[in-house]
């Protein structure tokens, strides 16, 4: 059980440090120009691999550019994590786009549309259909 807590703690620390690095540490214009949120960090049990799920605001081609910038900065980020977290060996970082927020937005838009349609319907008096 302690091993699981250690992995979660490392994931939390990685998330915090990467968030800080995204704000102030990466000079790549593709990354600096994007609105990026780290939504989740998954670290393997042996602490050698790390999946970083990010939400990137913008159109699909803009998201691809930002993701390419993040991948290009991977070596720098790995080194900074090792230094900041005092790890002998920092995990390999893999950035993945989190589509959860997009799906949530689509669901909210659909719910708002349904609510609008419901309000547009004419409400019939209750006795209209009685015999």
How would you portray this structure in words?
By secondary structure, the chain is an alpha+beta fold. The protein has one domain: GMP Synthetase, Chain A, domain 3. 56% of the residues lie in helices and 18% in strands. The protein is built from five helices and three strands, in the order H-H-E-E-H-H-E-H. The protein has helices at residues 2-24, 29-32, 60-72, 74-85, 100-120, and strands at 35-43, 49-57, 92-97. Strands 1-2-3 form a three-stranded mixed beta sheet. A hairpin with a 5-residue loop joins strand 1 (35-43) and strand 2 (49-57). The longest helix has 23 residues, at 2-24. It starts with a helix and ends in an 11-residue tail after the last helix. The mean pLDDT is 84.
Topology, pairings included?
Elements: H1 2-24, H2 29-32, E1 35-43, E2 49-57, H3 60-72, H4 74-85, E3 92-97, H5 100-120
Helix pairs in contact: 1-4
Task: Sum this structure up briefly.
With 131 residues, the protein is α+β, with helices and mostly antiparallel strands. It has helices spanning 2-24, 29-32, 60-72, 74-85, 100-120, and strands spanning 35-43, 49-57, 92-97. Helix content is 56%, strand content 18%.
């Amino acid at each position: 059980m302690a091993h699981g807590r250690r992995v979660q703690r490392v994931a939390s620390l990685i998330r915090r440090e990467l968030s800080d690095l995204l704000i102030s540490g990466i000079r790549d214009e593709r990354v600096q120009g994007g609105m990026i949120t780290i939504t989740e960090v998954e670290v393997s049990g042996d602490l050698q691999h790390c999946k970083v799920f990010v939400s990137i605001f913008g159109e699909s081609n803009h998201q691809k550019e930002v993701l390419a910038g993040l991948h290009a900065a991977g070596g720098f980020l790995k080194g900074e994590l090792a230094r900041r977290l005092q790890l002998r060996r920092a995990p390999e970082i893999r950035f993945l786009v989190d589509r959860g927020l997009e799906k949530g937005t689509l669901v909210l838009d659909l719910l708002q549309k349904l609510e609008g349609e419901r309000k547009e319907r004419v409400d019939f008096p209750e006795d209209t259909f009685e015999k």
